[in-house]
Specification:
There is one protein chain. The radius of gyration is 29 Å and the shape is rod-shaped. Helix 1 runs antiparallel to helix 2 and helix 2 runs antiparallel to helix 3. The protein is mainly alpha-helical. A two-stranded parallel sheet has the order 1-2. The chain has a two-stranded antiparallel sheet with strand order 3-4. The chain starts with 7 loop residues before the first strand and ends in a 28-residue tail after the last helix. The protein folds into two domains: 90 residues; 44 residues, no CATH class. It has four helices and four strands, in the order βααβαββα.
Length: 160
């Protein structure tokens, strides 16, 4: 049995730092395209909360039971370092809930309705014109460009 005067190391802040790093790792797994993104979001929140609990326990041990646990300075430094990723993970979880759903977003291979936008020279071009190959050419022109077989459209999902 350890002596009553022997001081122990405070391992709780280390577990808090490890949990905070794990929470950030879950956020990365969420955005990389994992098979179960909902699970990673909740796991990230759980690890962030667990990190905060470990950090609170570590600080309470360091300052409340200073005669038993050593390492006040290390506990404060680890808590400050771990607090940032834990808070960032919690903020990401809450902020992601405010984003609109993408249920109405076009799917891969879906036929796009006709639209008209301006090109790089400022002329209005429609999707039908692009697919017909009649953009910028007259009927009398012999160098009519060939119609493309497909048009690549890139949709950026934004929230402004």
């Amino acid at each position: 049995m350890p002596d009553a005067t022997e001081r122990r190391g405070n391992i709780a802040p280390w577990w808090g730092l490890l949990s905070a790093i794990g929470a950030v790792g879950c956020n990365v797994a969420f955005f990389v395209g994992s098979p179960a993104p909902g699970m990673f979001a909740w796991l990230s929140l759980l690890l962030a909360m667990l990190a905060l609990i470990f950090l609170a326990v570590g600080l309470k041990r360091a300052f409340g039971q200073a005669q038993v646990y050593r390492g006040k300075t290390l506990t404060v430094v680890l808590s400050a370092i771990a607090l940032l990723p834990a808070a960032l993970s919690g903020f990401a979880f809450v902020a992601a809930r405010k984003l609109p759903s993408a249920t109405a977003a076009p799917q891969v291979g879906q036929k796009v309705p006709d639209f008209a936008l301006s090109d790089t020279s400022g002329k209005i071009v429609s999707l039908d014109q692009l697919l017909a190959g009649s953009v910028g050419s007259s009927a009398a022109s012999s160098s009519r460009p060939a119609a493309p077989k497909a048009v690549l459209l890139i949709f950026y999902r934004g929230y402004w």
